[in-house]
Amino acid sequence: MESKPLATLVIVEHDNQSLSVDTLRALSAASQIQQDGASLPVTALLAGYQCGAVLESLKCVENVSQIIAIDAAEYKHLLAENLSMLVVDVSKDFSHVLAPASTFGKNLMPRVAALLDVGQLSDVVAIEALDTVVRPIYAGNALARVRSNDSTKVMTIRSSAFDPVAVSSSPVVESVFTPDAVFAAEHCEFISQQKIESERPELPAASVVVSGGRGLGSKENFALVEQLADKLGGAIGASRAAVDAGFVSNDLQVGQTGKIVAPQLYIAVGISGAIQHLAGMKDSKVIVAINSDPDAPIFQVADYGLVGDLFEIMPELLEKV
Ligand code: FAD
């Protein structure tokens, strides 16, 4: 097997203006990849376009020993097709390549792993050794300890399992390099992006999440969830049934096939607590459930349960908060 320098590469997720909090969490995971009690050197790879502000923030991140930064129009939209070729090229000098298990990382890293002809360690929640990680399986109902013999360990990191790495108020990273080559896939171009703009915090970064389920009955009634989220300065989430019924868009879905969140406070309104939903929120610090069915499975994970009609409880709660 090819032997590589022991070093970790973290792919930076950003919007050309700011670093995602998921990147700070992936960097924290990276610092836990250690040999003889010392972290492997961590390099952050930043590819973007007119992303100088991101580079400046990245320079303030503790635990980063160097930055590889490339500013080119080809990376403006972080297309996985372009970025994966860059990552594969840069990864020659790294034993571990990490990205957050966000939509960005889930889009990019399987492509990287395939191009490198290695397996991917997905949704890592703990790092036990250079070659061994822990990851959830069966929608989070069991944890698997996985050992990889691949020469490059390609991983996506579950953000809710790691605290963000510390950020200094002034730059701490001095080494910044620029790769020579820019990669662009021949058969792929960016056409457009539809993005829902919201004043509310992003789901994965929010410390309070209020989620609604089928029990709300309609898109109009979902306003009760929105009002509570706004009063608490939180983000909105939803069960898949609520998304499928058209109450909200699917980027708000929490669960196995949606977003994984672990806020300080998660309020589930009219959600039964199917395992696929629990997979996305059961690590929340405090869980509150509002449901008329006392036997709803959500109460098994809830710290506080309000059994009753949400159409009575929610207006009262809104008045009192
Ligand atoms: P229901 O299960 O119908 O529950 C509605 C709840 O509202 C009930 O408990 C009811 O008692 C309560 N209720 C009704 N009226 C009131 C009222 N007036 N006051 C108070 N309470 C009331 N689901 C997800 O959420 N996220 C996922 O990512 C996801 N991925 C999936 C992946 C796969 C492969 C599969 C098979 C399923 C997945 N699901 C997912 C679907 C999941 O199995 C459930 O069907 C879904 O979570 C149910 O949503 P719900 O709790 O809103 O609806």
What would your notes on this structure say?
Strands 7-11-6-1-4-5-12 form a seven-stranded parallel β-sheet, sandwiched between helices. It has a five-stranded parallel β-sheet with strand order 14-13-15-16-17. It has a three-stranded antiparallel β-sheet with strand order 8-9-10, with no helix packed on it. The model has no long low-confidence stretch (mean pLDDT 95). The longest helix has 14 residues, at 103-116. Helix 3 crosses helix 4 (103-116) and helix 5 (223-232) runs parallel beside helix 9. The chain has helices spanning 21-30, 52-59, 80-90, 103-116, 223-232, 240-244, 275-278, 298-301, 310-320; strands at 8-11, 34-35, 38-39, 42-48, 66-71, 96-100, 120-124, 126-129, 132-137, 142-147, 153-157, 175-177, 208-212, 235-238, 265-269, 286-291, 304-307. The protein is globular. The protein has nine helices and 17 strands. It has two domains: 8-177, HUPs (Rossmann fold, 3-Layer(aba) Sandwich), CATH 3.40.50; 203-320, TPP-binding domain (Rossmann fold), CATH 3.40.50.1220. With 321 residues, it is α/β, with parallel strands linked by helices. It is 24% helix and 25% strand. The structure holds flavin-adenine dinucleotide.
